[in-house]
Amino acid sequence: MPEAMEFKDLQKLIQKYQNGTATPAERFIVDVWYQSLDEEEAESPDAITPEFISETEQRILSQTVLATKKPIIKRLFRSWAAAAALLPLLALSYYLWFKPDPITTAFDKVQRQIAKTYQTGPMEQKTILLADSTIVQLNANTKLQVLDGYEQEIRGVILTGEAFFDVKKDPHHPFVIRGGELDVRVLGTSFNVQAYPGLKNTNVMVHSGKVQVSSKDKVLSELSPNKELRFDRNAGTYRLMDNATPVSDSWISGVVILDRATFQELSQTFYNMYGRQLITKDKGLLKDRYNITFRKSIQLNDMLEQILRLTEKNYTKKREDSIQIVLY
């Protein structure tokens, strides 16, 4: 349990609340205090009876907060004495909101050592079987690191790239994937995670069961089948999508369908399938969105020709053996 909240800390929280700069957790603390003050009794510190404190504590412990009302500045400054009596309870609410997530804490604890690493290069895919019989299919240019202590507390892995997971059910040992800024946690299900460092988004798509997606200990969403979460790494925001016909794992069968893809996504897919990197300095190309289907059965030159027709651009190579293809 953290130390009791300082009175000056409450003052700062209220100021941030009024300025509109408070975080959700900070707004929660102010709301707990405000809702604990009766309109008629707010001016009198004597109104804070043991029964009132007990009732408020139970409300905090159950994390049930009444409908939010924005505090009025005038009332806030009249209520300092009452606030002082409630500081221990505010500290409790602060603890309940910010207490460390046990799975993430365990993940961070065992992350210091990597037990095993699986990796694929361009044009390469690989299927691996983990110790608990979980099946992982790695897309090209992907690295999967299995953490030391796998199955002891959690089944933890770190993903860089893209993989499809068919997780063996084990209710006592949650399966946790750290991909970029996201943690994906499951007990047993199948889903696809795309977390290439060069892409703007980290994507999670569920096929069966349920998964919980978090970022920095904050739960973003619980996804059910055919639901997809796309997390914008730059903005720290996300959006949820319905996919009646999932295509996120079609790469397993050699097909990748891009729908309104960025140039970076187009380039990553081309690199995964053909081992060549598309690059450009053309601002129009970098800004545009692309709809195109990649198939392994299509030869490199034929696929490149499709991209040139789509973008209405030409290409060059710095040298014949270069893996970089420059569009201009």
Spans of at least 5 consecutive residues whose pLDDT stays below 50 are 38-48, 63-78
Proportion of residues in extended strands: 25-35%
Question: How would you name the oligomeric state of the polypeptide chains in this document?
Answer: single chain
Summarize the main sheet: 13 strands, mixed
What is the number of helices? 9
Quickly name the level 1 CATH class of the largest domain. Answer: Mainly Beta
Mean pLDDT: 79
N-to-C terminal Cα separation, in Å? 60 Å
The appropriate CATH architecture of the largest domain is Sandwich
- List the helices and strands in order: HHHHHHEEEEEEEEEEEEEEHEHEHEE
Determine Rg (CA atoms, Å): 26 Å
Number of domains: 3
What is the fold-level CATH name, i.e. the topology of the largest domain? Jelly Rolls
| Class of secondary structure makeup | alpha+beta
Number of strands: 18
Overall geometry? globular
Portion in helices: 25-40%
Write the layout of secondary structure elements.
Layout: H1 7-19, H2 24-35, H3 50-61, H4 73-78, H5 80-98, H6 102-110, E1 114-119, E2 126-129, E3 135-138, E4 143-147, E5 155-166, E6 175-179, E7 182-186, E8 190-195, E9 201-208, E10 211-215, E11 218-223, E12 227-232, E13 237-242, E14 255-261, H7 263-274, E15 277-280, H8 283-287, E16 290-295, H9 300-311, E17 315-316, E18 324-327
Helix pairs in contact: 1-2, 2-5, 3-5
Description:
The structure is a single chain. With 328 residues, the chain is α+β, with helices and mostly antiparallel strands. It has 3 domains: 7-98, no CATH class; 103-242, Jelly Rolls (Sandwich), CATH 2.60.120; 254-327, 3-Layer(bab) Sandwich (Phage tail protein beta-alpha-beta fold). Helices cover 30% and strands 31% of the residues. It has 9 helices and 18 strands. It is globular.
